[in-house]
Predict the 3D structure of the following.
Amino acid sequence: MPAHTTLARTEFLVVDTETNGLSGDACEVTEIGAVLVGGGELHDRWETLVGVRAPLSRGIQRFTGITQTMVDEAPAAGLVLPELADLARGRVLVAHSAGFDRRVLRQACAREGVSWPDPPTLCTVALARRLHPLARQRRLAPLAESLGIEVGVTHRALADAETCARVFCALFPKLCANAATVQDALALLGPVRRRRAPRAGATDGSRPAQRAAGTRMRRPDFSGLTDDPGVYVFRNAEGQALYVGKSVAVATRAKAHFAPSSAAGGWAARAETVDHRVTHSELGALLLEQRLIRELAPPGNARLKHQDGHVYLRCRLDIAFPVLEVATAPASGRAVTVGPIRGRVLATELMEQINSLFGLRHCGRGLPRRQSPSAYGQMGRCLSPCLGDLDPNLYRRRLDEALALFTGEGDGGTALLAHVDAEMRAAGAAQRYERAAWLRRRHARLRVVLDRLGGALAATHARPRLVLAQHPRGDGRFDAFWLVAGRVADWGPLGGGQGVPGARSGADAADVADIVTRTHAALRSGDGRERVGWLSPDEVDAVRIVTTYLASRELPTLTLRAGGDGAEIARFVDRVTKGATLAPPELSLVTAAVQAPQR
């Protein structure tokens, strides 16, 4: 395709790919859709499923609707990619977030030995950014809707390719008005090069010092460090903490701060000594790091931020007419917190759905006074306490009904769908057909939202749990964590830190007795707090660290019950540590030690 060809005479191939959801070399194409566009109109269409080597995860099957059976019966990539390459020759490739599709196709062709023509590529995201700047969102479906294009099926290759093609055609006249040739269009939609701000210095806010040529940064003595999980603390000559860090290999990570390529200046220039504390797991290191940073307040950790992508749906109960809100951390004080939830956009949509279903306030914590109902109130989706004539008990009953979905034993998402289904049937029985239809649409959308969220939704205080986290080397050492009443009630090494590297004989009776005693103490500390979380501000970070860590990893977990069952705890600990089951007399002694006290 000559770069000077005019856009009006150019043929475009709009493509979309679906993948197995993995990254790097493990990424494989599962479906390809292509639409031929010329003169601002859609012409031929081409699509195919593609066989993959690795099995598809259940999450990606739910997300795309492409099942394992479908790809098992599909032709191999080596059979379909040459045809796609022929279609792309002599044409301009168009895609939404084109960098991803181009990279995926290049990688697939390289893997199969197919010659990819590498055509010039236009991205509809860049096209919208340049020529449709008023669009609030540039994801494909919202962008199409902002242009008056109806969107039906999503996350299937041909359907998304057609939507992308219609977006391209809608913006094609503006593109022709600003660019005459393909070369002009590529220049117009190319990356905007902005002047980069100077890189930040050390984490204590100071600028990095210029290191003289041939000099080396002075290194503290690292001989006392081990490569176990844990936390290391750099200190100055007076013993004051300068920086606290954590790692699954403490010695290796601590030395990396003083590698020749690391920046000089800041706290590193003043570090004289380093000490460390060992844990038996990465999760233990994370909690210990958070605790020491709070206690020591080292200047090197002044910029510590929460950036793990999880959010929480929470409700503060200490305000008038409480509201649901999405935040990056659990709420302190008297509150109910649900999560963690991966993705703020989905969490916000879930919050809005719950608000509309139960008539809760959509405004912020402050309660504005109104002379007339808000738009939500006029639609019957808010009880309108802002008018000043609403019974607070009615609002609280609705709020408690909504929160109760997530504070029970089961999955809150399943309970929410069941509630909507029951309301829909009740509306149908009462011949309120418009409400029944509205609830049916809500039910369908909620199912999509909950499927994308994945995992069970529950309040953080609803399920007391004992969690065991193993040493990264799998050498028989564990950390135990007790989550009771929405807080980290206790944590520490299994058996009081007596684990021996390489020992796989499991926990002995003394270890189990210690676990049972600490379980009893953790449950007793949560008495009276089972229904509502009562976190202090100092406990919020610890809860966030543990819950987000568990949301992305599967660790051995035992749900705890009031009173505690020593035999069940013993079996759980023994099973996890791969040891022999304790003898019945020992179990009976442990069981007796955990009976709940009389209240």
In short: Confidence is low (pLDDT under 50) at residues 198-216, 496-505, 528-532, 579-599. Residues 464 and 484 are 4 Å apart (CA to CA).
